[in-house]
Amino acid sequence: MENQMTYLKQWITLLSFLAFTLVVSGQEMTTLDNPTPRLGLKTNLLYDATGSINLGVEIKTSRRTSLDLSGNWNPWTFSDNRKWKHFLIQPEFRYWLCEPFYGHFIGAHAHYSQFNIGNLPLGKSYEDHRYEGWLGGAGFSYGYHKMLSNRWSIEAVIGVGYAYIDYDKYTCRKCGEKIKSGNTHYLGMTKAAVSLIYIIK
Predict the structure, then answer these.
(1) What distance in Å separates the CA atoms of residue 1 and residue 108, rounded to the nearest whole number?
(2) Closest CA to 37 of 17, 67, 63, 15
(3) What DSSP assignment string belongs to 104-152?
(4) What is the DSSP code string of the chain?
(5) Any residues with CB less than 8 A from the CB of 5 and at least 6 apart, and which?
(6) What angle do CA 32, 19, 71 make, to 5 degrees?
(7) Cα(129)–Cα(80) distance, integer angstroms
(8) Could you tell me if 115 and 135 are in contact, meaning their C-beta atoms sit under 8 angstroms apart?
(9) Most C-beta atoms within 10 A of its C-beta, which of 27, 45, 68, 183?
(10) Over pLDDT 70: what percentage of the chain?
């Protein structure tokens, strides 16, 4: 858990610094009367609904491309000791069919997460055991971005890909000895987002 908190603090610091740097850069580009570069700060409403704290930043990198970086953190233990504790980082490179922050795009993303989960209604194994570990992988995504006003927009993204998962399995949800260490390979959905975005021009 200490390692998880250390990694989390490092990533929060990095995301905060990156967001500040990009905001300043976006404001400077605006003062130069260059309307092309754009910056977006975003939150994934799907993660918000699960109680996960998340922040994303996206910056236009060329006439048809942008770079998106999101970080998500869930530190909570819910009622009946249910937990989906994790932090997740997911950078994504996007190619837009029209121009960044408008219409359809395809993306390539990577992901890294550490997790501590248990007592979830996902089958008997997850209800009776606790899993702790990490995962990493990559995938491809498709999304659509719609402007709501000059400053606000919304986007939906769905992605599929691969994850390598390394985990320890424990005998009960709260305590207990480790009964297994293992790893597995996952193919399937690796990204889902409905994000509310604040645009900085």
Answers:
(1) 30
(2) 63
(3) EEEEEEEEEEEEEEES-SS-HHHHH-EEEEEEEEEEEEEEEEEE-SSSE
(4) -HHHHHHHHHHHHHHHHHHHHHHHHHHHHHHTT--S--EEEEEEHHHHHTT-EEEEEEEE-SSSEEEEEEEEEE--B-GGG-EEEEEEEEEEEEEESSBTTBEEEEEEEEEEEEEEEES-SS-HHHHH-EEEEEEEEEEEEEEEEEE-SSSEEEEEEEEEEEEEEEEEEESSSSS--EEEEEEEEEEEEEEEEEEEEEEE-
(5) none
(6) 145
(7) 14
(8) yes
(9) 68
(10) 77
- Interatomic CA distance for residues 154 and 199, integer angstroms: 10
Q: In whole angstroms, how far apart are CA 84 and each of 15, 22, 37, 126?
A: 22, 31, 37, 11
Distances (CA, A) of 168 to 101, 129, 132, 165: 41, 10, 5, 10
Which tokens go with 190? 């690796």
| Cβ partners under 8 Å of residue 51, min gap 6 | 74, 76, 78
Average pLDDT of the chain is: 82
**What would the two tokens of residue 131 be?**
């899993």
What confidence tens digit (pLDDT) does each residue in 50-59 have? 889 999 999 9
Could you report the per-residue pLDDT of 161-186, keeping only the tens digit for each? 999 999 999 877 666 778 889 999 99
